[in-house]
Design brief:
Length: about 160
Amino acid sequence: MDPTLLRSYFATVYEFPTENGIVRASLDGELVKDVSTLPEILRRDFALLTAYNPRSMLLPRRVNESRHQVLRDLLVFGGYRVEHCIGYDEDPDGVWREPAWLVHGISREESIHIGRTFRQNTIVYCTGARPELIVTDATCDDIGRTFQGNWRVRQ
């Protein structure tokens, strides 16, 4: 995988909905020795999935929104609880923002399959409070190749 693209994936800030407000976090943190210090949402098992901009090709907003709604409907019909999430570039001059679905209780294998189906370069999967960036597009790297991350809580 291209090192610049990989760095940008790790630096992406995600906004997670919680009962106490938004939690912001990225995958570029240091190893967390005591996971109980992390917000509860980051200690759950979940996937972050999107249908926007397949293979990093910018699509019209309307097309992206339609694809993203289809993904949500498939997940809900599959019995998963989904919540809206957003990823964005931390750079103050950055304009990149991409909606995602926070999918609770989905397996790693099914998450990879959905990422491939919707032609995403990667997905984020979290288990045991440890996020992974998983390749789902063979043009980027071997499918299933994992890049281990660590949560970094942002203010």
